[in-house]
Amino acid sequence: MSAQFPEGFLWGGAIAANQTEGAYREDGKGLTTVDLLPTGEKRFPFMVGGLTSFTPIDGEFYPSHQAIDFYHRYKEDIALFAEMGFKALRLSISWARIFPHGDDAEPNEAGLQFYDDVFDELHKYGIEPVVTLAHFDVPVHLVKEYGSWRNRKLVNFFETYAQTVFSRYKNKVKYWLTFNEINMLLHLPYVGAGLVFQDGEDEEQIKYQAAHHQLVASSLAVKAAHEIIPNVQVGCMLAAGMTYPYSSDPDDVQDALDKDRDSFFFIDVQSRGEYPGYAKRFFRENNISVQMEAGDEEVLKAHTVDFIGFSYYSSRVTSTDPEIQKNTTSGNVFGSIINPYLKTSEWGWTIDPKGFRITANQLYDRYQKPLFVVENGLGAIDQANENGVIEDDYRIEYLREHIKAMREAINDGVELLGYTSWGPIDIVSASTGEMKKRYGYIHVDRDNQGNGSFDRSKKKSFHWYKQVIQSNGENL
C-alpha cells in the first residue's frame, strides 16, 4: 500500500524577494547585493566575488530592479496561487526593505508594512507564509562598509533584523528559514554572503570565517524566534542533491562523501549544534583558522533548528579519474560528471527523481528531524501553441516523477512537512538573470531584456498542480 501524503501537508510554491519584487528603490528600500548583478558576461565573475562597483553600472541591465513587479502585483499573484489551492507560499523578506543600510538605528516602516500586507493577503486565502530571512540578500552598505559576512558585526545586525521581523509578524508567520541554501556561500560567495575579494586574499579562510558568522547568526535567530513567537518552527536550508561516485573505486566513493560533507557541514552545525570532526580536520590541513568568540559554541549547541529545509533539483556525480572528469556539465552551479543513466534539462541539470528520494532519506537518516522540500522544479524554455497556451508537459512530467519519489520517501518513513515547488510563477533566474529559463505554472510576459507587459497567464501545469493539491498528491 502506497503511503498517503499526511493530512495538513503544506503544498505550495516558493519565490524570493530579489527575483520577484522589483521596486528596487521604492518606499525607502536600500540597495541589496543582487541589485548589482547584471545579465551577461559580468554576472558570473561578480557572483563569485569579483564585484567591481557598489552602484549599478551605466549601460548594464539589472533584472532585479523590476523583476516581475510582485511588489505592485502581489494581490493578483496570490489570488492565482489561491486558485491552485496553495496551502503555503515560501517567500523571503528583503533585509534592505526593513533596514535599508543594514545598520540603521530604526527599521523602515514602509518596508515592514509591505510584508504585513502580503501576509494578510495570504491569510485571506488560508495560505501559510513560510518566510526566509536571508535569500541571497545583503544590504550593499554592509558589504561596502564592513566587508559583509567576513565581519563579526554582521551577526549583531542580523540579530536585530531577525528580532524586528519576529516581533512584527509573530501573529502572522510561524514557519521561518534563516539562510537560503547556506552552503552556496562556498560556490557563489558574493551571492551567498556578499563577499567581495581583493587580489591575493585567502578566499577559503574568508569564506569559512563568513560561514561561522552566518552559523552563529542563524542560531541567534532561532533563539529569538523561540523567545518571541509561540509555537514557532524555524528551519535551516540546504542546496541538496546526492553526490554519486562514478565507480566503485574507493577513491571515487571517498570523493563523493567529501563533496557531500562540504554541504552537510552547514546543516551539521545548525541541526546538531557543533562543528563536525571532518570539518576540523579540513581546517587543520588547509591552514584555515576560524575565529570564534567566547560563547559561540554554547550558542550553536543551545539553539539548533526545528526542521531541515532543502532544495532539490538534481543529483551529481564525481570521479577521481582525470579522463572521466573531462565529461562534465556545469548544471546548477555544482559541476558534475555527466551521468550516463540520466537525461538532462536544457540547462544541463541532471533529471533524477530517484535521487530526490535518496536525498530525502539521506537527510532524514542523518538528522532525524522533519524535512521541508522548499524548492524543486524544472527551468525550461516555454513556447505557446497556436491558441496562445503553453502546454508544458515536460514540466508536468518532471514534477510528477519527483512527487512520486517524495511519496516513496514518506513510505520509507521520512517525515515531510510540505512541498513548495520553485518558481510557481515565472521569475528572474538566480544563476543567469534570464527570464527565458522559466519554472512557473503562471507565465509572465517579460523577456531577457526587460521587455513585456508583465501580464500573467496560466500554463497547462497550472491546472495540473491544482488537481495535485486538491487530491493531496493522489491525482498526478
From TrEMBL:
The keyword Hydrolase applies. GO terms for biological process: carbohydrate catabolic process. GO terms for cellular component: cytosol. GO terms for molecular function: beta-glucosidase activity. The active site is at residue 375. This is Beta-glucosidase. It comes from the Bacteria. Keywords: Glycosidase, Hydrolase. Belongs to the glycosyl hydrolase 1 family. The keyword Hydrolase applies. InterPro entries: GH, GH_1_N_CS, Glyco_hydro_1, Glyco_hydro_1_AS. It comes from Gracilibacillus halophilus YIM-C55.5.
